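Review form for a predicted model. The reviewer records the input and the model, then writes brief findings.
Reviewer: anonymous (R2)
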Amino acid sequence: MAPRARLEAHRPILQRLASTRDIPSRWRAALCVPGLLALLALGGCETTPDDVTPTAAPSPAAIASTPAATPTPPPAPEPTPPASDTPAPRPLGDFGDAPDGVSAGYPNPRVIGRFPTRLSSLTAEGPGAHVRRPGLDRLGSDVTTESDADDPTDIDGVPNLVNQDAGDDGVLGLSVSLAPPRAVAQLTVAVSLGLAAPAGPRRINVLIDIDRDGRWTSPAEWVLRNWEVDLEPGASETFVSPGFSMLDGEVLPEGAWMRVLLTRESLAGEPWDGSGSWEFGEVEDYRLALPEISRPDGSRPALGVVECPGPLQWVEAVVVLEAACAVTNIGEEGDFTARVVRSAGSVTLVPDTVASETLHAGATRTATFVLVRADAETNWRVRPITVSLAGQVDSGVVVLGLTPHRTALSVGPADPDVRTFDRDAQEDYFDITNLSPMEGFGFADIQRVALGTAAIDSVGLDILRRAYFTVGGLSGAVAGDYVAAIIDMVDPIPLADSALGWRVSLALEANDDPQDNWRPRVRDFDLYQGTDHWYELIYLPTLDPVWRIQRRVAQAPSQALPSNAVAFIDGRRVVLLIPESELERANADLRFRVMTFVHEPDDPSGTVEPSMADVFPPLDQPLQTFGPRTDPLG
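Model under review:
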């Protein structure tokens, strides 16, 4: 192609270059030499003082060798604005206000906020998060525009950095449920669409600097991904997010920075660091804060999350059981209290209130309960005493709201068809001297009995000691394996009555030697007949102490033997714990009889006044077997 034809083919490109004022002066001068002007009639080659470049005049030979061109009138020159050193203003958009290159404001003062917020952020590959055409799609009702997060000419009068965006009004609250296994958070936001906005869903993405390292780099910190919300153009609606976790290990991230982004399109990639540019939507950044809760005395409650085990089961012959719930403080240092409320069933649980010493942030302690068996399935609610607080938002700070949680604790028999307790007919007192029926006191009238084992340690023993009236074992009882007897009376047992003596006896066939069993000495039948080991819980107002546990054997019935047995009285119930080490026979081979006596303080044998007694099983029946059974009720 001839040189002139090549020039003609590139006329449009040369024309644009020549008319562009932003290209370097030496390029424009080269294009606007007289030869090119004459050949292509290029416009835009007007010069300014800054554009003038000295050039040598062409030689006559050069002029003679230039082909003649048809004169073409040049286009009318466009007015050229005067030269200025001030750069053209950048277009306005909506930016966030999380710290970018400055202190994050965390408890560790060395942490620098490296959140991509400035347009030319040095903390991410992409630009700082911004929306180029804000207004139609909004978080809340307001949106501000600026040329950058640190724009000194910000329209609202203050540059965004740090946490100074006056249009951050989309987040209405952030509430945390104190529910196990991880505290669940939910975000409440308001979204508005202009009348000219198109229909269709919008997406909300949320980042929280959970580990408080000054970046949004962990996948776990992208707590809400492309959460879809729907509303009509011109509408404003409030939305509550799905639940998400925001724990830093075991604590809430006090002071963490959160970014909330509204867009029309979904975000992809893994992870999202908070950077990017979008045509429509809004970017809002907030700092999170824990609620300031204090009592009149200045103390502060812990934000306790209680996690109890799944449904417990009574197995084999266990009649006293421990249950442990974990209590974790996910807030700042404080004390913890929880109440236990029974919602169904008849199992006894102690204590009904759990209180702790001060719990440090993130610390976990064990709340131990002792359960005393009943045949019915039983459920409780373990309710932490924590105030319910609504979340608050003020000046770009989101104060977390709190929702207390009642954790379920339940226990039931492994086999509901196998019973543990045997019932005794009521009002079946008799005279101990002649076995004749008589009226007696309800506090010594046996109603039902169970003999099994206790799965309990020293913590459980201490709980029972604190909860109930305790006899014996104050210094000698230790954690271990126990045979446990539960004996329920018709009426509550008096703990002090100077006019009466009272005792309850558990007589056992506790070894495999039938030759050492007790035999009748006075009458043809004796209450202790066929037993070799006796435990008696005794109240006698003439003794000191008035309450005691006495252990005896049939071979030396008048001699009190040392024992680590301990008894607990709860209203009308006696719980007797006997260390298995004091018994020679396996639990499954134990046989027993329970007896009660009420007598005059100075006449336990009934020589002057009748001594009233009750016994289970009845005297005409054999000793009762250990553990659960399915035979007819006694």
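Findings: Confidence is low (pLDDT under 50) at residues 1-7, 12-72.
Further findings: Residues 484 and 577 are 5 Å apart (CA to CA).
Recommendation: see findings above.
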